[in-house]
Amino acid sequence: MRVLLLLAAVGLCGAQYNANTQPGRTSIVHLFEWRWADIALECERYLAPYGFGGVQVSPPNENVVVTSPNRPWWERYQPISYKLCSRSGNEDEFRDMVTRCNNVGVRIYVDAVVNHMCGSGAGYGTHSTCGSYFNAGNRDFPAVPYSGWDFNDGKCTTGSGEIESYQDIYQIRNCRLSGLLDLAMEKDYVRSKVAEYLNHLIDIGVAGFRIDAAKHMWPGDIKGFLDKLHNLNTKWFSSGARPFIYQEVIDLGGEPVTGSQYYGNGRVTEFKYGAKLGTVIRRWNGEKMSYLKNWGEGWGFAPSDRALVFVDNHDNQRGHGAGGASILTFWDARLYKMAVGFMLAHPYGFTRVMSSFRWPRNFQNGHDVNDWYGPPSNWDGSTKSVPINPDTTCGDDWVCEHRWRQIRNMVVFRNVVDGEPFSNWWDNNSNQVAFGRGSKGFIVFNNDDWQLNEYLQTGLPAGTYCDVISGDKDNNRCTGIQVNVSGDGKAHFQISNSAEDPFIAIHINAKL
Ligand code: AAO
Fold first, then answer.
1. For residue 361, how many other CB atoms are within 10 A of its CB?
2. Is there a contact between 459 and 489 (Cβ–Cβ < 8 Å)?
3. What is the pLDDT of residue 15?
4. Ligand 1 pocket: which of 250, 251, 372 to mutate (most atoms <8 Å of CB)?
5. Distance from C-alpha of 326 to C-alpha of 313, rounded to nearest angstrom
6. Predicted local confidence at residue 375, as pLDDT
7. Distance, CA of 215 to CA of 198 (rounded, Å)
8. 123-136 burial: b if 16+ Cβ within 10 Å, else e
9. pLDDT, tens digit, 9 for 90 and up, residues 58-113
10. Can you name the residues that pair with 493 across neighbouring β-strands?
11. Which of 92, 273, 372, 409 could form a disulfide with 72 if both were Cys (CB 3.0 to 4.6 A apart)?
């Protein structure tokens, strides 16, 4: 009996760190700003067949409609109510998406914006995505309802009411982030309203949450609403399954609020990961790929089972948030594919792939004045659907990095090597590196300015393998490079420094 209770307790304790993906599905993709109807289709036609574990969706709740600038992407980070009603679709469409994605084994994770409501200067009226009335000036959000009592105004001690210093833990939690009205999360009433919203989503069938601006809430207050959450819907999840939690805490070091303070609640977004990997692959500050030998905790990152990792996110791909100029994005496609390839091959962390829309970048004095551009839209402000080209890429400025062959095939690679150890590391003391995942996969990078020409131990069984970066295995032949592994597990690799993609990846499911 005691053993059973102990086992049950251990199970519950670990639950919020588990993504609730189907076995063998190890990554999620952020389909930034996509409509629910398009995500449902994408789950069925692409994500399930290629083994994606789930989708992080943009905030589904009602938000303020911003017209100056014209419908920026960031208006969705200014809640007006918890009605499921946004540019991505209404509640019926949201339910249809969750059902259809779950039915093909692809999970949905909701970006939960619960630290605050809209900006203090948002005015009053019904300029919200569902037409709910609000008055930011007197803190009135009748569609929740929240009133002046539910905000932190009285507690913030800065003259401006804003966070003025990231060195003061009280300002960070009690003052406004970019003018956003800060909810008083210590109040049981506020926690209950947040939990009611998240439970509504859980009951529909979502598998977990990104907790936006978690840094700006006390860890204990987050726990306060997480403890009120239901178990996941047993139509798709085992009984007792808990929602996956990953908290957005930007911790690049040097601030008193750290990611580790939040591990008790769930995973934490590891921002050092993309910032450092970008620096290494760009070869800035004397960094080189051979230093990646002890990548992960060895670089001062969160424990692997507490980290949610990514190369770029919707903020730092356009200069918001943190990470700086080193962050690699689809704009630097060649280096970006290497970075994402490295991330997906390496065992550290739970991986999230970014899927973006293109916007007209316009740098003035080093700053992109178009960083606010919303998703591809019609004249009336509605979001365009995602057209699929005959070659399987996306049209209308939807970048669909997750459909790039190199990235999609590395999502498959990560699934194939799941559970295998990091092994057979090789480097040339510079920017040529290689490593394996036990006896199931091997990857080689050439980020130097000269050719790579090496005979390396792969750990793989003998045979002919298709490189999944330059091509695919198709009808028992390779459409790209072929690699022959001999009986001792060794193989010859040659990678030109001017190759379109200077890396090669092989795994046992791409063996002829
Ligand atoms: C918009 C307008 C504002 C206006 C406001 C209200 O742009 O001008 O005042 O509406 O009307 C998004 C947009 C915002 C937008 C907001 C609401 O990014 O521009 O404001 O929607 O529409 C902090 C937070 C972090 C947050 C990040 C953007 O800690 O939580 O700022 N990310 C999330 C979302 C994001 C969203 C929100 C939160 C709000 O992902 O999309 O905002 O819901 C330091 C701190 C970080 C801090 C950054 C930026 O970082 O450590 O915690 O992030 O500053 O303020 C070095 C340091 C690094 C430092 C960095 C930048 O890299 O090492 O630590 O420099 O200084």
1. 13
2. yes
3. 82
4. 250
5. 13
6. 98
7. 19
8. eeeebbbbebebeb
9. 999 999 999 999 999 999 999 999 999 999 999 999 999 999 999 999 999 999 99
10. 454
11. 372
Residues 387-439: tens digit of each pLDDT: 999 999 999 999 999 999 999 999 999 999 999 999 999 999 999 999 999 99
Strand partners, 125: 134
Ligand 1 atom 3, closest CA: 178
- Contact yes or no for 506/466 (Cβ under 8 A): yes
Is 227 within 8 Å of 219 (Cβ atoms)? no
Residue minimizing CA distance to atom 59 of ligand 1: 322
- b/e code 371-390 from CB counts within 10 Å (16+ = b): bbbbbbbeeeeebbebebee
Catalytic (active site) residue 332: no
Ligand 1 mean position, distance from CA 500 (Å): 35
Report the pocket of ligand 1 as residue ranges, CB < 6 Å: 74-75, 77-78, 113, 119, 121, 166, 177-180, 212-213, 215, 248, 250, 252, 255, 315, 320-322, 324
- pLDDT at site 324: 87
Closest ligand 1 atom, residue 76 Cα = 22
| Residue 122, CB-side half-sphere exposure with 13 Å CA sphere | 29
Q: Determine the distance from the C-alpha atom of residue 334 to the mean position of all C-alpha atoms in its chain, rounded to a whole number.
A: 20
Q: What angle do CA 387, 339, 409 make, to 5 degrees?
A: 50
What separation in Å is there between the alpha carbon of 186 and the centre of ligand 1?
A: 22
Closest CA to 244 of 268, 220, 276: 268
pTM score, whole prediction: 0.97
Give the active site residue among 42, 93, 111, 248.
248
- Give the per-residue pLDDT at 12: 47
- Which of the residues in the chain have pLDDT under 50? 1-12
Instruction: Identify the residue whose C-alpha is closest to ligand 1 atom 6.
Output: 119
248 in active site: yes
d(CA 70, CA 360): 14
CA of 77 to the centre of ligand 1 (A): 10
Q: Best mutation site among 258, 315, 327 for ligand 1, i.e. most ligand atoms within 8 A of its Cβ?
A: 315
Contacts of 351 (CB under 8 A, 6+ apart): 26, 27, 28, 309, 310, 343, 344, 414
